[in-house]
Design goal:
88% helix, 0% strand, elongated
C-alpha cells in the first residue's frame, strides 16, 4: 500500500466521521449521510489498497 493512498484513506475516514458526528449533533440528516458516505469511501479505499498488497507471486 502506497503511503499516499494510505494517508488519503485515513484522512477520508477521519473527515467523514467528524462530519457525520457534527451533523448528527446538529440534526442535519443530509450532511450526516454525506459524512457517512465519505467515511465509507475511505474504508473502501483502504480495503482496495490492502488487497493489492496481499497478492504477490
Amino acid at each position: 500500500m502506497s503511503a499516499g493512498e494510505k494517508a488519503k484513506a485515513k484522512a477520508e475516514q477521519a473527515v467523514g466521521k467528524a462530519v457525520r458526528k457534527v451533523a448528527h449533533a446538529l440534526g442535519k440528516e443530509v450532511t450526516e449521510a454525506k459524512g457517512a458516505a465519505l467515511e465509507a469511501r475511505g474504508k473502501a479505499r483502504d480495503l482496495k489498497e490492502r488487497s493489492k498488497g496481499g497478492v504477490r507471486h
